[in-house]
Structure formats: C-alpha cells, structure tokens
Design goal:
204 residues, alpha/beta, five-stranded parallel sheet
Length: 204
C-alpha cells in the first residue's frame, strides 16, 4: 500500500467511525473520519488518494448519494459500503455504480480489512492507468497540428501515399512527419503508435 493512500470513513455513528479507524490504524494506514457525506465533501481535497468506507443510511446524503456525487465529480475513490439494511436491489445498485463491496453490520474485522486491501489494489490500478493516460496525452500535446493529422490518418489505417493525397503534400513530407510523430510519441513502431492513441481514445 502506498503511503499516500488514506482510508476515509464516513458514518454518522461515532462509535462505528472510531471502530473502523482503530482497525485501520492498527494496520498502519492513515485514516480520516467524517460524520456525514456533506462533511466529507467539504473536507476532501481533489486528488487525495485512498478508499472510502461509507455507511449506507445517514441523515442528509446517503452512502449511495455520496458515491454518485463522487462519480459526477470525476473522483474515482473505490467505495466500500457498510449497511445494517442490506437488500438485493440496493446491493445491485451499489455494485453497478462501482462499489468494491457492501458489508453487513456488524462487520467482522477480517472481512472489512480484506475489502480495504482489495480497494487499495483497485485504487492503485486506477491511479496508474490515470497517470499513464496523462503521459500519453502530454506526448500528443507536443505534436504540431500537421503531425497530429498524420498520426490520426496513420491510426485510421492509411498508407503514406494515401495520406499525402488527402493532405495535399509530398510523400516525403509525410514520411518525415511520420518519423517525427514516432519520435515525439516515444513509439518504436506504427503498431505501438496505434496502441497509444487507442488507449486514450478508449476512455473518451
């Protein structure tokens, strides 16, 4: 677990908050507790890494409401939902919205800790994918408009001659721009260039 990962606990029950934080702290992890979803949203700093352990039913925003609001804001914290009122429809809704799991109260320490570790792994994978996406987009941003057009046509399967005809330029010019595109994108082959563009297009 990276040191930067924190367990955020959101529950209106102070005893439960303290219990979860005690478990998390005993495992050597940072923990921050909030009495409501609104308090969490007011105190959470965008970009903070970690996982969210939240109660399903709370005054004001529910755990599912908080999960939906985080998704709306583009926040990808993995969510673990605690509930004393588990119902199939609610569980399905939570899982479809991306929750790692839903755990019944009273919970067993081992079950909650296993869920937190799974959530940490998921958060790490999300963070790595996001960082790689940013790196690829940064490389694309270095391309000139002409180079980007050549790259797009290459990714679409066009040969150099066809690109030259479409852009009204010489084949030699296409070849030079293709070379420059590969260099700026740090791609050793056309296949790798295509894969890089498809990686970022898949999330658009």
């Amino acid at each position: 677990m990276p040191v930067s990962q924190t367990v955020f606990v959101v529950d209106d029950d102070a005893n439960l908050r303290n219990s979860v934080c005690a478990l998390v702290s005993s495992m050597g992890c940072p923990c921050k507790a909030f009495a409501s979803a609104e308090e969490f949203l007011a105190g959470y700093v965008a970009g903070e890494r970690g996982v969210l352990v939240v109660d399903l039913r709370m005054p004001g925003m529910s755990g599912l409401d908080l999960q939906a609001e985080l998704a709306r804001r583009g926040c990808h914290l993995p969510v673990i939902i605690l509930t004393a009122y588990a119902r199939t429809a609610t569980t399905v809704r939570a899982m479809q919205a991306g929750a790692v799991t839903m755990i019944d109260k009273p919970y067993h320490d081992d079950d909650l800790w296993d869920a937190i570790r799974t959530a940490f792994d998921k958060e790490e994978a999300i963070w790595r994918a996001s960082r790689r996406r940013r790196e690829i987009l940064d490389r694309i941003a270095t391309l000139t408009p002409e180079e980007r057009r050549v790259a797009q046509l290459l990714v679409a399967g066009n040969q150099n001659k066809a690109i030259a005809q479409q852009m009204g330029i010489a084949v030699r010019t296409v070849e030079k721009r293709r070379h420059d595109v590969l260099a700026k994108m740090n791609a050793e082959s056309l296949a790798e260039l295509i894969r890089l563009f498809l990686e970022v297009q898949a999330e658009d």
